[in-house]
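#structure-requests
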Amino acid sequence: MHVSTASIVMICAAMAAGILIPVLLFLFVRKKSGGSAKAFLVGCGVMFLFVMTLESALHSLILTSPAGTVIQGNLWLYGLYGGFMAGLFEETGRFLAFRTVLRKQMDNDGNAWTYGAGHGGFEAFSILFFNMLNTLIYAMTVNAGGYEQMAALLPQDQKAVFAESIQTLIDTPAPMYLLSILERCSAVILQMALSLLVWTAVKRGGKKLLYYPLAILLHMLTDSVMMIFNELVGNVFLTEGLVLIEAVFVMAFALWRWKEERMGTGRLAA
């Protein structure tokens, strides 16, 4: 068993991208929009609290229950469930952050952009850096001849799954690890776009509050279509292409509404 040097290099490149994406995104967006570092940090915090803590905990409860068995046994139901939960927790996190922690910063529309950079940037960091770090550890352990020792520590019913995951790691072509960077860039575009919609909902109020449930719906549709399409088609390149198209479409819509809502109200911070 051996993981190629090229694969290890690509894994490290993806880890580096996990650090560079949020840093460069923050610097660029802050310069262009005039948003604050506080909004960026709040975006990071909301992603951690609402997605990696609260949503993850609820998934653990639901998916290990009898209802979870039913959900996971149906591709369409599982796709809609995953998309809805992602949309509900992330957009609600945004909404509450704008209504509370960032309430006094609502006069600066640039904060919508820096918040989105934090929300999407922290997600990119956590997925690219930590997930790839775990993959790198496995790769280095396998190359050092430690596979048998790792397998021996697992319960009998988990050994087959572990062996399959290690074989997948070995068989994956090195350039495929770079696709994770493209996927995160698409996700960042989506996160920025949804931040603009929810910001508008909170700042304008009234009927504009409908942008909040609309953001949940768009998030759900984007994630659900991606999950279902990937399972049905099984082509990672087509899936990533679809994700990018979805993200660009949502951003185009968000920018259109963002500019329309601010027409005649002063300079657009963007």
